[in-house]
Amino acid sequence: MRVVVALGGNALLRREERPDAAVQLANIRAAVSALAPLAHEHELVITHGNGPQVGVLALQSAADRSLSSPYPFDVLGAETQGMIGYWLLQSLQNALPERQVCALLNQTLVSAADPAFTDPAKFVGPVYDRTEAERLAGERGWTVKQDGPHWRRVVPSPRPQRVVETRLIRLLLNSGAVAVCAGGGGVPVIRDEQGQLTGVEAVVDKDLTAALLAEALDADALLLLTDVPHVSLGYGTPGAEPIERTTPAALRAHQFPAGSMGPKVDAVCRFVELTGGMAAIGALEDARAILNGAAGTVVTPSGSYREAHHDGTQDLT
To answer: In what residue span(s) does the Aspartate/glutamate/uridylate kinase domain sit (predicted)?
Structure first.
């Protein structure tokens, strides 16, 4: 099977953890331990979030008095692709000495007319209490919104239209390589009136980019791996109900927060609707079980899942 995996930024840097390099590297090594078994059995593409990481770099850039102005978000996105891509590349090479692994810097085309530019909604950076968030917003011109019990900075998140380097990623897969790509949803770019690419001040949602990429690569499965075991109705309440098997229509019938679970739900539904494949949302440590249909929230056209094997047989799981 050809499998696209999207690692959540909070799975790589958990809430309340210090954003030190050693902390993130330890988390990435744990992530690779969960993903390596998939690479032994399937063609594997790995994308990753960068919300916490790009927020840290934005703070550093804003505080650097040697700069005339902070680095724009497209540049910060490229920096985090390199940083996280390096950690994933090295950890995967150590875990899979028999496989070629490539970490690729990617650009993602967006529309300059996307309404997201006038309504920022993508969370980046660390969490704050409301008082601190509003103070920073006033000092630095940020837009802040509530993220669960906390408050965070938000930036524009236009909808991805195409990963510019899709053909190159396909070549890597066809050669047998594991591809790490489209980190943070890819560096957001538009085409100007001369047809030239140029970066824009935004962050692309990595789950929507992962779904777009999975569709373009003819993937069989899309896994969105994060720090929760499944999608739940009434998340965070005593009466929360996990969703285990579902269809796109049934999942879309519910409302989920636009800044967190909403894009994930949109991404898995879109992939299943357009390809007829399998998509799932669940915990990183359950990656193999999720692909086998034994964990997470599994979304298929019918609501059931048959795992395909290399010999052509299928198991109803």
So the answer is: 1-273
